[in-house]
Amino acid sequence: MLPQVHSVGDMIVKPGFTLGPRVLGDYELVYFPSANGTTYTFKDQIYTLDKPSLLFTKPGEEHTYYFDRGGPVRHLYVHFEMNELMASDSSYETWLDHPVLLPLRKGSLVPVLFSQMLQIAHQQPRSWQRRIGVVLLAILEEWGDSADLLQYEQHPDIPSPIQKAISHMESRLHLPITIESIAEITGWTHEHFTRKFHKIYGITPKKALLERRIRRAEQLLITEDWTVKRVAYESGFGDEHHFSKMFKQLRGMPATVFRERYADPYLRNTATVEGLHLPYPINTSVFVSD
User: Fold this and answer.
1) Backbone angles phi, psi at 153, to 5 degrees
2) pTM of the model
3) What CATH number is given for 1-123+278-290 in this structure?
4) Less CB within 10 Å around the terminal CB: N or C of the chain?
5) Closest Cα to residue 231, out of 219, 217, 243, 245?
């Protein structure tokens, strides 16, 4: 099941422009690639975009954008529905509880994925609407992971050793780390670390590490033209056979089928572009579906 994309766009607005107050009938995710003085108001809260960020707006929420008066502001956006997606998997409903404004972490795949989505929308290759849905799902997964990690880091009830373990895990998904090595940096025994982790998150650290490695593998299968063996190693699996077994068990299909179904040359061969030398015209919006 994929989110249904309504429209995508990449815009540069004049300094001081005000958009709103307005209420949307669908979900909106907006990527601001650079820090600026734009503010976003929602429920008497004021959010300042002083870092590259993602802004998430739900249907029926009144909000206003006050764009930076000091210069033009570029932003990329997507409007979509995901009710069927949430109905098919209730775990996606947790996204609705994530922060409205999420600063992007270093190394985030969001810039590349947004660029891919806009390129597909303008070139409109075979099955382009479905492919845009695939890329948007990857963006939402990346956003969800970043929001989860941000909450792990900021939640006052999570012990500092657990926070350190999560950060250590996230930064080394491409390495063959073990739960024992992660437990070591907490200063706890493996057994005590596992019990504390499970009590806080409801799953074992082994399962959490495996799920994050599989998500990394999904992104690599879509964005890189690598062999499955290399994807396995770059996702922290020391054995291609074990990776293939775990991927099929958790995703219901072999990694090769996942790539054939969801990846294509547009996704695998695009890359981030400096400045505004983009593979699609700026300041255009593409209608994808009703």
Assistant:
1) -70, -35
2) 0.56
3) 2.60.120.10
4) C
5) 217
